[in-house]
Specification:
- By secondary structure, this protein is of the alpha+beta class.
- It has one domain.
- It has 5 helices and 15 strands.
- Strands 3, 4, 7, 8, 9, 12, 13, 14 and 15 form a 9-stranded antiparallel sheet that branches. A two-stranded antiparallel ribbon has the order 1-2.
- Helix 2 packs antiparallel against helix 5.
Length: 253
Amino acid sequence: MKKIAFSLAVSLALSLPLAAQKAPATPPGMTFATNWLATQLITRRELLECLDLYSKAAAGGKTDPVTIWGPVKWLMPVQEAIKALPKGVRKQREFRVTNLAFPQNSLMVTIMAITGSEFVDGGEKFNLIYFISDAKQQVISVQLVQTNPKIVLWQPRPEGVREPYYNFIDDKWNGSTRQCVPFQTKTTSDGVTLIKTALLKLPNLPQPPTGAAPPPNFYAFIPYLESVHWYLPAPFAAKFQEIVEHNRKSGVP
């Protein structure tokens, strides 16, 4: 009788449509809703391609990172992370993430602004810091944004240009042929990757000769409209890889 009941349970589970089956498990530590994987497909192919590129670069690190950025630790309560910031910070806004490219019903973004001085990272000054937290209000990612950059530093130059998204948390992309999105990825510790993007205003300069290298610091001082440092830990990056795979298996090109 037990064998019959077991066989019936297995048959029933295998016969369930994919949409009715549970979403993949959340890695140890992070807490997401049981329905974190969106059933609605992402229709923006460029968004999927950009996330695939960046999350793939970050997904191979440790599954239990220690530090995300500066004083902010992996799975640190968001209120503790705020207290660890310099004096003069203020909450600018807070919102739930509804972008289909992110885990659903699970993430909150808290944006802090600093008055009188800025957060310094990699020699650059940023005026906003974003805490991305899970369903238990634990920080799982950090983003720094400079909305009016005077200088953007590359080491030594961007890896390339990847259009059109440059700020995934705010869902911002380049919509002009007179601008572009240079990028660079860098592993900052075993388990956390810096995804550096910027919105660059193309200068009115003659086209350089084929094969010619730009002059030193060329990329630092040309006009930028926004600079972004997104610190993406490997466990969170792995979830984006699952989202990309889910959409491609479902027919998104």
